[in-house]
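Supplementary notes for students who missed Thursday's class. We covered one full example, reproduced here. Read the sequence, then the structure, then the short commentary at the end.
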Amino acid sequence: MLETEGVVPIEFFFRKTELIVTFLVILLGIAFGNLRIKGVGFGSSGVLIVAMIAGYFYQFEPIIILQDLGIVLFLLCVGLEAGPSFFRAFKQHGKRYIANVLVLLAVAGVTVVAIIAIASVPPGVGLGLFAGAFTSSPALISALQFSPESEVIFGYGVAYPFGLLGVILFITISVKLLRGRMEAEVQSRSQVHTAVYKVHNTELTGTLIRDIELFQLHNVVVSGILRDLSLRTAGGNTVLLVGDVVRLEGLPDDVKTVGELLGEEIHEKFDENSELDTRSIVVENTSVLNRSLNDLGVRLRYNISITRVIRSNVEFVPRHDLTLEYGDVVVAVGTPYQLDQLELFLGHEHHTVQRRVDIGSLAATLFLAFAIGGLIIPVPTLGPFSLGLAGGALVAGLIFGHFGRIGNFIGRFPRNATAVLKELGLALFFVQVGFDTGQSFVESLDFQAVYYAAYAVLFAVIPMLASFLFGHFFMKIPVSECFGVICGGMTFTPGLDIIRQADVSERPVIAYSSVYPVALILVIALVQGMNLALVALGAVG
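Structure (token representation):
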């Protein structure tokens, strides 16, 4: 044995704290949620699943103050993001898209309340099943405000995978059955056409896109360029080279004419797994109104492609001399950062936008959230009613998001800032709830869960079917737009990828984005309404 005299022993100590455990679980949960099978994964709910596993095996104690902070941050940011478009969406699409969403949610509410009452499902479990069937985090948070956490989380955990599967199967099967009708609708539209061409014209090599009169004469836009296996944006200062693969957008005849002068058409999708994004931006900045795109220098300043403009439900390819009007929807292609900057320029008045999160303004919104949530209103026969932390945060976010500024306090922050705060709040909330319910969830699993899974599928499929039948046959909404409304109403983004198999236009996306912020708010109100209905029916003890 070797002598170790004179050697100073060093011992390492590690103190386990609640915060270390919390953020380790968030890290593992995000990694799990990012796993995708054919583009579908658990997303933010991955944090909840990992937290429930950790809570079951290690019985971690939840930190209530982090749970409350998480609720407030998440719903406050939901309100801030929805505020600018929430009331406008009601005004612009009240007779079509919004009515369709109201049918979707109304049928969902009636179905949930009826099954809970008839099958004697515990109300907390039933509301959790609804939140899981709709894969809706806001609905889950709303249900947790007035139902036992263990019941709600159990229902959510059982329903989530079956609700997810039910939505995917419904949309996939429907798209396959109605593909012919969808293609006929697409062909009958006077819409912007997209085609991909490979450049062979040597006379154009090395020329800036803005200097090529061919595009201006035929009103065709280059929305993306594939060069050296890299997809990039195509702004006015982008150089065109022989061998480039370009995506052209415009009227069918114009695209064909320009494409044949550039080179040959190829049939391939070159935008998969790219960093480019498409975003619809509503013009609200009064300083850009009645000024042309050329005068504003939008394409050169942000190096993005404006592929179309929608004005009074009429879609067209914008010329460089097009003057913008209030309420125009500008469809642009670029990187997320470029689109964020363009949205700050076109989307809001300058004095209502901050390029960073203003801490004083954030504190003001949080104060208003807690103040509204603390109000207690007596309701005859039902007792005292309060919006609670969740409702207070949501209302405060909507108020600040809608008005943009109240006094010296700003209510509109950059999209990436509110997205980070929202995801952080949801993660903090999910960790604490998972710790608290992991043990009880496993202990509650029995044969009854099979019936709960069947109820979850019904909660998802029945409202979707009713919404489609009402929207397409009564409201005369095209099939692909109906599915866009359904995905937006259920806040189910992956469904758009399935729809785009038959309709690659922006119409389903516009339908989705038009109702998404409204649905986020209404689904929270729906959960509270269902709870009141169950109280009135005596289902809640």
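Commentary. The first strand starts at residue 193 and ends at 199. Residues 349-353 have pLDDT under 50 and may be disordered. If anything here is unclear, bring it to office hours.
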